[in-house]
Amino acid sequence: MRPRLNALTGAGHIVVFLAVLMGPVAALAQSSVGAGPLTGTLTETEPTSGVLSIGPVKLAPGIVVREIGWDSNIFEESINPKEDFVAAALPDVAIYSRMRFLKVSAYAAGEFVYYRKYVDERSTGHAERGRVDFLLSRMRPFVAGGQMVTRTSPNGEIDTRADEKTNELSGGFAFDWSAHGVLYVAASQSGTEYRDAFEEGVDLALSLNREMTAYSAGVRTDLTPLLSMTLEGAYSEDEFKYSPERNSNSRHASATFKIGAEAVASGAVTLGFRDFKADDPTVEPYRGFVGSAGIAYPFLEVGRFGLIASRSLEYSFDEAQAYYVESALNLSYTHRLFGATDAQIQGGRSLFDYGNKGGSVPRTDTLDIVSGGIGYNLRNRTRVSLNYEYSHRRSRALSLRNYERRRLFASWTYAF
Prior knowledge:
The protein is an all-beta fold. It has one helix at residues 204-208; strands at residues 52-54, 57-71, 84-98, 102-115, 123-134, 139-152, 162-178, 181-195, 198-199, 202-203, 210-224, 227-240, 248-259, 266-278, 286-299, 303-315, 323-338, 341-354, 363-377, 383-394, 403-415. It has a single domain, classed as Maltoporin, Chain A (Beta Barrel). Helix content is 1%, strand content 62%. It is globular and about 60 Å long.
């Protein structure tokens, strides 16, 4: 399996697909534990499709043409929306190598976005991340790092296509206590920076630029040949560069269950509890459920259902709100029509719950997205599709955040 450049696509407007389908069963206990926010999407096992071999190094290149088509509201405006022709391409490559005392997993990608009319919105981006595990018998020290530079809407709250840079440096130790289990401890330092980006007159750099330090420990074990479980506890601190009054700390406990691709249903589910406390005494602590799920289920050999769900705490660009809790659900169904032609429909809703700071009024904003498309699958693992998408955000309290958006576009996915 190869990771795709989800972090550069602006997919946060639906939900982030956090589930990673499992590779061969024998590799479950040897997967990358203790990963940081960027390196967590690295290939955990040797790629098996579209692979080019150069000695001990395996390369899995590909390209995604995310969209070529029309967008009715490129700035997601409530009044006088602007339309344009948009094209976006995302070439990438996954790299993997395992030698006697060393395992290396890396990923590199680029992003090229074109607007015909609004030339200032044209952009390029890139992402690089890698991890090295030192295979010293049962003890496996590891180091990892990465950087991502993109221009996109960071989440469902922010409409602006913001210039954003994210980086990570992490490391730790893993101990294989059996053929099917591993203990680990890890630490990471990561940061998020915005530049020349404004939302409703707020400079995102002043309100959101921050550094995060995190420490974690856990255990991963195989429960069955097709199911693994990871139990983890973590502590993190967020420090805001220009708004130190927003500093906070969190304690987090989670259980992640990964289901192998050979099972009837495949994917991953994470159930977690987060204890969040801000330094500002007027900000209400959050103690509650967080998590994510990504499940695929085949239907009578002619279709496939998909479920993606998440619940998370996110910082708001508006310091008067401090943070919001986002709950999202997306359902999809893909049906083979005839031969290599299929049809897909999907729908999703996100809820943004505000009112977590003294003086703020509780409210819930919504974002609904529905889409459909016809696709054709070629023998060389290429899929070409024509898609239509409609999205609608609604805020009863803030009318300027309301918008409707329609997109008609073609996309193309190719793995060499």
